[in-house]
Structure formats: C-alpha cells, structure tokens
Amino acid sequence: xxxxxxxxxxxxxxxxxxxxxxxxxxxxxxxxxxxxxxxxxxxxxxxxxxxxxxxxxxxxxxxxxxxxxxxxxxxxxxxxxxxxxxxxxxxxxxxxxxxxxxxxxxxxxxxxxxxxxxxxxxxxxxxxxxxxxxxxxxxxxxxxxxxxxxxxxxxxxxxxxxxxxxxxxxxxxxxxxxxxxxxxxxxxxxxxxxxxxxxxxxxxxxxxxxxxxxxxxxxxxxxxxxxxxxxxxxxxxxxxxxxxxxxxxxxxxxxxxxxxxxxxxxxxxxxxxxxxxxxxxxxxxxxxxxxxxxxxxxxxxxxxxxxxxxxxxxxxxxxxxxxxxxxxxxxxxxxxxxxxxxxxxxxxxxxxxxxxxxxxxxxxxxxxxxxxxxxxxxxxxxxxxxxxxxxxxxxxxxxxxxxxxxxxxxxxxxxxxxxxxxxxxxxxxxxxxxxxxxxxxxxxxxxxxxxxxxxxxxxxxxxxxxxxxxxxxxxxxxxxxxxxxxxxxxxxxxxxxxxxxxxxxxxxxxxxxxxxxxxxxxxxxxxxxxxxxxxxxxxxxxxxxxxxxxxxxxxxxxxxxxxxxxxxxxxxxxxxxxxxxxxxxxxxxxxxxxxxxxxxxxxxxxxxxxxxxxxxxxxxxxxxxxxxxxxxxxxxxxxxxxxxxxxx
Length: 648
Hints:
The protein has 648 residues and is of the alpha+beta class.
C-alpha cells in the first residue's frame, strides 16, 4: 500500500486469475494467471512503453500456487486428462494463433500437437482419455483486408464483437487420438458450433448449433448428437438460445442452460432437463434467479468457466446470481434448490468441480479475486494492490415492485466530495459485490461513487427484469435518480452540485438519455454507448434480433420506426447541456462506433462541450479486458474530465 494517491497505472501491478480447472481427483487446481509485462523485455522503450498481458499456467495441490509454464508464449485453457497425468493447454507465440500442447505432469517438456495457421479452442478430453477434441479453422486464413481485396457478404451474420470478420466457413471439430498420436478432422459444420460436450461413454459428443444462418441470428439453437463414426443428428426442437450442455451420468438425458422457445434476452437463463424421448421440464422452477454470474467486475481477464456439474446421479451443482452476489447452489432431480456456497457479500464468477472437490475464484467489492481449492485460497493476489481499498455502503430505494439496492463508495476523510452516478450495461446484468478497480480508483482520487441495480437488472427475479420491457428510459431512469437522491440524503458528504453521470453500453445509452432529459449533472461520460436505436439495429452484431427482445420493436418495420426514434437519445439531443466525454472502440461491433460519431456530431452542432476518445483495435470489452496501456489511457481520460468539470 505504498501509493496513497494512486493513478490509473496502478492497474499494472495487478495479476488476473482465470479458468480454474480442478483435477479429476478433486485435489489439485490448474489455472491461468495474466500479468502485465513489457511486450519485449529485451527492448524496453521508456518513450513508448508497451505493457501487454502475459499468461502462464499455475498449479496448486492445496498450498500456495506455483508457476507451471514459462516463456514468452501466452498459455491458456488448461485441461486435465482423466487420469490426472497430463495437462492439455493452448500456447500462442510468435504472432500465431494458439496451438494445442500436452504437458506431462510427471516431468518433461510440453509437446506441441498442432501447427495450424488458425487458433485452437475449447479443448475437451473424452471421459476414457483416448481422444482430445477441439474446435479450429485449421489452416484457413483470411488475408483479404491485408491484400486490399473486396469482401463479398451474403450471410446475415458477418462480424461479431471480439472476433471482427467472421470466417466464411465455421471452425471444424477435430479429435486427436492420444494413444495413436493421430490428428483427424471430425466434423465440418454448415453452421457454427457454439458449444459441445462428450457423452459419458466417450462414443461421441452433443453439440449446439442452428439449422441455418437466419435461425442462428435469431438465437434459435438446437442440440445435435455426433458419434465418433457417423453424421450428426438433430435431437431437439428447442428453437431458442442454449448456453451449455451437461449430460446426465446415465448417458440418456441431459440438462441444458438456456431459455425456452418464445423467450428472448430479458428472460433469465435456467436449467432444463431433457429426457431421452425429447420431453423437457425446468429443473430449477422454484428458484427465481438466473443461472450463472451476471455481476460485473473489471478484473476478469480470461475465461471464467461456470458450467454446472453433476455431483451424483440426482444432484447438479450450478452458480446463480442473487441480488448483487453470485454463489453455488445444488438442485436435485425433484427440483429442490439449496445453497452450497453462497455468501450475500461475495461473488464466485467461475468454478469447476470433480472428485468431490471444487475449484473456484472468489471476490468481494473490497477483496481482489483469488483462486480457491476446496475452500482454501491458493493465491494472494490482493496483496499486489498498491493502495488502500474502501468498503462500499449499501443504500436502498423503493419502487412499485418493492425494494431496490445499490452502494456508495466514499473517499477517506470527512470533507464534501464530488459525486458520480455510474450505470451498468446489459441492461440485464448486475452491479454488486465484485471487485471494481475503476470504482476504487475514483474513490481513492476523491470522488464518491454511487452504483445500483435499477429495474431491468439481473439478480432480483424475473419481474424486476421484465418491468422495463418496451420502455427503456422510463422505470430504469426513475430508479437511478431515486437511488442517487437517496445517496445524497444518506451521505451529506456527497456534493450534488458537483456530480457526474456515466456508464457503458446500456449504461452509455442511459447516460445519453438522462442528459437529454435532465440538466442536474455537471458532467457526463458515455462509453461504448447507444444514441440511435434505428441505426443500431442495422449495424450491431446483435441488432437483427435485439430490439424485438427488449422493446417488441424492430428497425426494419415501418410501423416501429417512429417508436424506436422516440426511444433514441438522439431525438432529445437539442436539450442536452451537460459537458460530455465520449469513449468508444473502433472494433466494437456490439455498440458500433457510428453511435459515438452521431452523438459527437450532434453535440458539436448544439455547442455542448464534448471530447471524443477513440481506441483502435479494441472492442466492446476495452474497460474489462482491453490492452493494458489503452485501459490506462481510458481511465486517465475519465479522471481528466471529472477534474475539469467537477473540481474547478
């Protein structure tokens, strides 16, 4: 805790854990640790530092974890062989996509198995240990942009956030025969495989895909069975989104995480048991909380597995978001849900379980994420923090559905301080008890940070989510302003006359909306935002379906166009007076950069003080997992804007 007034570069001291994978016997955990290092430590350049994430595998048998892999390559995706003697993993080096490697844990060097031009992903050993399956485009490569060639687009999906241009043919499913040392292309799908899992008898896999590209765009997915020798067979008529699959140990049934036909993105994900004859029922029917972690944090760099696991023939372990927390729960085949590891003040963003053991990552709003094995922390990453951490205070508010909640993070001392209302994205995500470096930084720099879960947020039951359907900017804005007023009343140190509103994605939409409907804030920061719902529909990677789900409207229907325009912040830009910082990433395909460009142009024309910061090569995840130097630049821009407009 050596720096009493930290800057954004405090991010460089942190190390980010991810992908905790428990050994088959439940006694060891392998995980990934991302640290920030100079891109080329042999050629440091003080005038142009190049901090980049470097990832290696770490291992623990219950004591303090030790580094397992070394070198300049970026290692990820550790996966245990069923006998516990080998770790498969992916290593990216020399500018190439990650390749499959095998590391014998009894001693010896890692051996590279693939030498594709494309990356390898989603490694899975067969239960009998004979095969190792994965997805890869193999030697396909797309160099059209590099060569200045035209790109002919005929599919409804052609780009996606974090991936940019989608390949013309999907990644294939491969398997590697470990005993025979033989690599084979197993299945070349017509439509992208979004997930797969081995069947218990190792005779093949179940995978998730769609019948055609238009169904894929509409998030209408199905389950297919693929034997080791043979062609895939569709085994469901689900017609809706599917997140993951968990075969029952009997090999006849399986559980899927998703939502049933007719339910869109506002519907919480739940557990559905599908019988051998195709009949299904919701397994967690008495649990009005979504499956998986929806609580946002900005220290999640890497994969965070949270796939449910059968503990025995009748009990499934899963994670769920409950208010501002996420914990582990059990559900039995008769639908009874009980908590196994749930603390209302913590978040478990990732877990795996096997052999009676559980490996996970646990964090609190005032405690950095740590890896645990069977209830014991095997990392001490919180100790890397370079400044004192503040504990947030809970603040409640009331609306027609009952009690809502949020938190205030106050700086040290008793002096009056500028106040910030920050709004999460989604909208069906959550603020809560996850660690937020950004919030801690703002508090340490003398700002009071107020954040809450208005209607539309996850974690408070389906009715809370549904209440903003078709009316963004209504009940949610009421809750946000109501909450902020409660904060000002509860903590007189917060200066309502020196206040800012900020948010990203849906939070950016709400920031734009609020400044078009209120002049109470002295500054605004809108990040990866939305301002024009009509143009968003045709430019976002999820635009063809998103407004149907969220608002019951769509941009291509004449009858809906005026309604979407009336729900667009751009409609009200003439009323904006609040000085605004706009932050956006050029490769953000979720909320495309044209949204920021429109908002900037409109504010310029109306004489509103505005600053537009564009980040190259980054996508929608800049604030959470972007390149470290760019994350630091973003935070410096935030602090500079707050300093200019709130501390004068």
